[in-house]
Amino acid sequence: MNRILSTAVLFTISFAAGCGNKAAIKPAETGKALLTVNFQEGKTLKYSFVSEREIIVDWNPAAIKDENKDSILNKSMEKLDLIMTYTPIEIDSNGLTTIKTVCQNAQVRRSEGAQKDAAEYFAGKSYTFTIDSSGKIYDYSQLRELIRQTGEKAFNNGTGKNRIKEPDMIGDFTAAQWFMWDSIASIPNASKRVGIEQNWTSKLSVPTPMVSRLARDVTYSLDEIRPVGNANIAVISSRYSKSDSVPQSWPVPYTGSFQMRGTFGLLRGYKLLDLTGRGQELFNIDSGQIEEYNQQYNVAIQASVPIGISVKPVINIKQTISMTLIEE
Predict the structure, then answer these.
(1) How far apart are CA 196 and CA 205, in angstroms?
(2) Contact partners, residue 190, CB within 8 Å, separation at least 6
(3) DSSP class of 61
(4) pLDDT value for 114
(5) Distance (Å, rounded) from C-alpha 95 to C-alpha 287?
(6) pLDDT given at position 45
């Protein structure tokens, strides 16, 4: 009989008098649920991740206010597809579960440039991490190292200031993996049940086509507990806004001096003007696993051109990040 790998069985269970049959409280009826992350021994979970964005560089944003001027727009898109598997391999005496993660496929498509993207280096790579039932990850070391190694693949063979960084979607991989269970891990008190319309907050990263460190403030809310077949599904919504700070613990894939190739090698002084969006996640309360999520937001970033021209282009990004459980 498979045993559940988690720090503690946090679901409230009542036992019928004189017998060992379990009768679980029904979250859909009580309007509250304990949201915990659980893995079952020997059971591999496979997920599909997609991160896609449309990028519009407006070289003359003043034209919006002056109908006699023409706005000069440069449009492009890029998309990362990932297939990832998660297999529990060990549980220690403290109740931390060790998970082996394998990237089975990583593919990047973009409208500009045909060069292989460094993010495709993730394909075939694996790493392990430890996690508890609250969704908190306690050992990011292998994932951090894999992100660093992949960052090296984004450069040509130059050295020093002659290093040229090609466009890459490493930040999108990081956004999908580093924050996989953020909605559960950020609940203030993991031992208490969450009620309908209860809110809690966190931060998520903002992957962009340029080299930047941006974050978005997130407000999660438990919208409903939806009975689906024999399962109870927590419907968790999320709202996004721009954040003024970025945690220093987040991984950085690049080090040293370099120049980025293309449009974003020319621009400088990036300033986050605005970020708005929403998302929704379906979390299976009974299995303790995310079944799918979809995050959509728009970003406006101001830049400058360091060649003595008083032009401040505005970069508008329409971003979608999604995940779906495709196989257990």
Answers:
(1) 26
(2) 10, 35, 36, 133, 134, 135, 184
(3) G
(4) 63
(5) 17
(6) 97
Angle, alpha carbons 233-234-240 (nearest 5°): 140
Q: What are phi and psi of 293, to 5 degrees?
A: -150, 160
Is the Cβ–Cβ distance between 10 and 135 less than 8 Å?
no
Query: Which positions of the chain have pLDDT values less than 70?
Result: 1-26, 28-29, 63-71, 114, 157-161, 307-309
- Contact 279/292 with Cβ under 8 angstroms? no
Question: What is the pTM (predicted TM-score) of this model?
Answer: 0.87
Angle 212-114-47 (CA atoms, 0-180°, nearest 5)? 65
Domain of residue 73, residue span: 4-327
The residue type found at 82 is: L
Residue reference for tokens 């890029």: 78
Q: Give pLDDT, residue 320.
A: 98
Compute the residue count for the chain. Answer: 328
Q: Scanning the structure block, which residue is given the tokens 């721009």?
A: 242
Task: Give the pLDDT of residue 6.
Answer: 40
Backbone angles phi, psi at 122, to 5 degrees: -65, -25
Q: Please report the pLDDT score of residue 162 as a whole number.
A: 78
Q: CA–CA separation, 290 vs 127, rounded Å?
A: 20
CA within 13 Å, CB half, 268:
8
Measure the CA angle with vertex 165, ends 251 and 209; round to 5°.
65
The CATH number assigned to the domain holding 47 equals: 2.30.230
The alpha carbons of the chain give a radius of gyration, in whole angstroms, of 22
Give the C-alpha separation, 270 to 320, whole Å: 21
Closest CA to 233 of 281, 283, 187: 283
Q: Which two three-digit tokens encode residue 249?
A: 């613990």
The three-state secondary structure class of 68 is coil
Q: 84 near 102, Cβ under 8 Å?
A: yes
Q: What share of the chain is helix, strand, coil (3-state, %, to 5)?
A: 15, 45, 40
* Number of compact structural domains in the chain: 1
CA pair distance 63, 73, nearest whole angstrom? 11
Which residue stretches of the chain are H helix? 27-30, 141-152, 170-177, 182-185, 263-266
